[in-house]
């Protein structure tokens, strides 16, 4: 199988061009190639496929083999791949995902994509649709006791479910302990991605993320979008544009509240091309 290893802000996936390759049993393939000791090493597998609904389809699998609905960093890399590897010459494209068709604008320099702006769609705030179990229609700053500690979280879906928790510090968090407790908490029926966020100033936040199915990752695009929405809803930033600092880099997120659309802009990079015998 020919593949390309790519990353967006350190959120790394193995990409396969399914215009040329056929991948059988992608769940097992994702588990195998994601292993950082015995495989290629990645947060998961992304298959780039033909689509009847859009220019391309992104079929995503997490490191544990579970299917993913959407990945903000991953879709930026899809855009870079299809342009840099000659599958399109357009700088505005559409990509079908399990959370709907997304529209992307490619920023090209010297014939290569450097940054991508993604229309991530509308944030979902209705608890039952995220889903989280709640008597209230929306969950904004709701207290929850997990692992013997009380946290306040805001629930947002950007195609996949997120619990955003504002904390005083992120550097000293025992995320490998706290993250799984949130992921498998009974109030999150489909498991959840959890962002722990420190407010740096009225336009900038810093986050660490525990992704369901993958553990802590260096970045999460949908998570950064959920964080920006939660920051606005909780009044911890001014305006609707938020700089989100992640372990792997920085993303710019804008929530256009008039249109109720979230836009994310960030980098995409190729690490290497290779082949693996499956």
From TrEMBL:
PROSITE patterns: DAP_EPIMERASE (PS01326). It holds the Pfam family DAP_epimerase. InterPro entries: DAP_epimerase_AS (IPR018510), DAP_epimerase_DapF (IPR001653). Substrate binds at residues 11, 62, 72-73, 160, 193, 211-212, 221-222. The active site is at 71, 71 (proton donor), 220 (proton acceptor). It is found in: Cytoplasm. One of its GO terms (cellular component) is cytosol. GO terms for molecular function: diaminopimelate epimerase activity. Keywords: Amino-acid biosynthesis, Cytoplasm, Isomerase, Lysine biosynthesis. The keyword Glycoprotein does not apply. The record marks 162, 211 as: Could be important to modulate the pK values of the two catalytic cysteine residues. Pathway: Amino-acid biosynthesis; L-lysine biosynthesis via DAP pathway; DL-2,6-diaminopimelate from LL-2,6-diaminopimelate: step 1/1. Its EC number is 5.1.1.7. It catalyses: (2S,6S)-2,6-diaminopimelate = meso-2,6-diaminopimelate. GO terms for biological process: lysine biosynthetic process via diaminopimelate. Homodimer. Catalyzes the stereoinversion of LL-2,6-diaminopimelate (L,L-DAP) to meso-diaminopimelate (meso-DAP), a precursor of L-lysine and an essential component of the bacterial peptidoglycan. Belongs to the diaminopimelate epimerase family. NCBIfam families: DapF. This is Diaminopimelate epimerase. It comes from Wansuia hejianensis. The lineage of its organism: Bacteria, Bacillati, Bacillota, Clostridia, Lachnospirales.
């Amino acid at each position: 199988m020919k593949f390309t290893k790519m990353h967006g802000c350190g959120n790394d996936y193995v990409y396969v061009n399914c215009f040329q390759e056929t991948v059988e049993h992608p769940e097992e393939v994702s588990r195998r190639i994601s292993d950082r000791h015995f495989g290629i090493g990645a947060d998961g597998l992304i298959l780039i496929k033909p689509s009847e609904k859009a220019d391309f389809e992104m079929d995503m699998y997490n490191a544990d083999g579970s299917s993913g609905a959407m990945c903000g960093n991953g879709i930026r890399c899809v855009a870079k791949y299809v342009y840099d590897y000659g599958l399109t010459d357009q700088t505005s494209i559409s990509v079908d995902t399990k959370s709907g068709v997304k529209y992307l604008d490619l920023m090209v320099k010297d014939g290569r994509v450097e940054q991508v702006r993604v229309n991530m769609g509308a944030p979902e705030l209705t608890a039952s649709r995220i889903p989280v179990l709640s008597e209230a229609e929306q969950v904004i700053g709701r207290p929850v006791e997990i692992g013997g500690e009380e946290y306040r979280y805001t629930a947002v879906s950007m195609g996949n479910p997120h619990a955003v928790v504002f904390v005083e510090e992120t550097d000293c968090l025992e995320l490998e302990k706290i993250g799984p407790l949130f992921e498998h908490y009974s109030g999150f029926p489909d498991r959840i991605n959890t962002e722990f966020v420190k407010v740096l100033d009225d336009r900038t936040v810093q986050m660490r993320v525990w992704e369901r199915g993958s553990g802590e990752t260096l970045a999460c695009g949908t998570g950064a979008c959920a964080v920006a929405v939660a920051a606005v809803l909780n009044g911890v930033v001014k305006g609707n544009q938020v700089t989100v600092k992640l372990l792997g880099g920085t993303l710019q997120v804008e929530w256009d509240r008039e249109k109720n659309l979230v836009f994310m802009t960030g980098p995409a990079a190729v690490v290497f091309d290779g082949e693996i015998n499956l």
